[in-house]
Design brief:
The chain is an alpha+beta fold. It has 8 helices and 20 strands. The protein folds into 2 domains: 107 residues, no CATH class; 182 residues, Spore Coat Polysaccharide Biosynthesis Protein SpsA, Chain A. A hairpin with a 5-residue loop joins β18 and β19. The longest helix is centred in the C-terminal third of the chain and has 17 residues. The structure holds zinc ion.
Amino acid sequence: MPDAITARCPLCHARGIEPTVRTLLSGNVVRSFDYACSHCGLLLNEPVIRLDPLQTDVLLRSLCAQTSATVQADALLGCDIYTLRTIATRFNLAASPASTTQLHQLANPHGTLSAEAHLVPLETLTPTPVALGILCSDREAGSVLQTAALYSSWAAEVVVLVDRAGDPSKTWQESSDGFVRVSSRLLSGNFADQRNALQALCRSSWMFQLDADEDVSPELGNILTRLVTLADRQGAVSIGLARENLVDGQRADLYPDLQYRLNRRDISYEGIVHERPTRAWQKSFIALSGVIRHHLTADRVANRSKIYERLQPGGGRLFEEHALQRSFSFV
Ligand SMILES: [Zn+2]
């Protein structure tokens, strides 16, 4: 039987299940829960830990359909409007608060009211222009430029920043249609500074950042342009996506490895390695519409943490190396 504390969250799959004292008011009934996910805020009772993914999927779908009148007092799962927004993205839906009270709860998570939302397909939202920013080494630049055009179905522009001496404000290569622009700047061992330099080259109000060994499907790219519209409407400035680490093609246990790479242009990153955007978590949310694929080899995994450890002692997070070396497991 899976241990509750190390079990994966049935929604975001993080090993973030913790005991909780959170409660939810549904109609005039106060419901209490055993556990909450520290990543997405899902509330759950013990039996959910033992359900298979199909059964939890049914429960999550029913959360999207519920109103306070339909909530069961003994329901196994619960959520406020902040978490419902994330659940909805799993089904490519956009959740909007059903009342001004729910709107207030969305801006001030985690709330004490059961979520009540209006839901529409994300596809029906007007897309917002999103720039794709790619960081790469000098060696990787050629292959990045060959594949950049693949993103033209959804990206407003592609900006590539190469780790090479240069003035990043000067474009040294541009495609004939202006869709792809390339600049250079020395990384100098500081990933946050490099991401901020890339962000500064963006002409769109939002940028999605990838590394040269990462990619996303065109379907997810299209959804990102709608998620940004939802975020702008609701005052969110940063969206996190799961990263699927594929080591020699196999999904590693380091999952969901959340990456907040879709940010408003004015948001900056901090941290020499394992950099993160600087913003209150309440202004961010996790989207479950797809994953960033991260292509690694076993040799690269063996070296990666050691390189990070040299850049920032303690920053290598050597435990991650072990999770990268294990195959993914649901339990
Ligand atoms: Zn979760």
